[in-house]
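STRUCTURE REQUEST FORM
Protein name: Thymidylate kinase
Source organism: Neisseria sicca ATCC 29256
Requested output: structure tokens
Priority: standard
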Amino acid sequence: MKPKFITLDGIDGAGKSTNLAVIRRWFESHDLPVLFTREPGGTPVGEALREILLNPETKAGLRAETLMMFAARQQHLEDVILPALADGIHVVSDRFTDATFAYQGGGRGVPLQDIEMLENWVQGGFGPDLTLLLDVPLEVSMARIGQTREKDRFEQEQADFFTRVRAVYLERAAAHPERYALIDGNRSLEEVRADIEHALARSFGMDV
Ligand code: ADP
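Status: completed
Returned output:
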């Protein structure tokens, strides 16, 4: 079986961290070799850039921010993602390029064609086999991140920023339904889990 590259994405508070555990258990229960990683991050260079990118004290312009995201991604691909896939190991990444389109493109206003250009340069046509896109309405996202944690540089943005972020995610999912599993994260954890497991099974060609 060709190893798969699966990404998990969505606006803050959609339930990514919570549902990573669901994905982990699914791989374990099917006895499939898998590597979990995250963006920005996944390598020493990437994690250092993550510190800069998420730190509320950082003052970075929108192009610098976008380039740092792709710098982290390039290292991540070269050192972690592509070698694992070459070794027959499935890879699950908590966020990937969809997040750059959504946050730097939708949120910050970087032209989407500029992001596409960087995507082509860095990834050369490589991309996820499946993207699990967790979606929640803005009020739910805001309520969840407001209650539970100290906010990072992105989470401190205002509601209209997240409205634009969410819109880009949804547009991308609608444009490529074969690659995305759009999961309504505004339901019980049980229902969300069932959808994620269903999407994974489908992607692996298992009877569902
Ligand atoms: P993300 O990683 O996407 O930002 P988290 O998984 O950290 O989101 O979830 C944010 C908060 O919302 C956490 O407190 C989590 O327990 C809660 N949460 C996540 N999914 C659900 C759900 N389906 N129903 C109720 N609360 C949820």
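Reviewer notes: The chain has one domain: 5-204. Helices lie at 16-29, 44-54, 62-86, 97-107, 112-123, 138-148, 159-175, 189-203.
Form closed.
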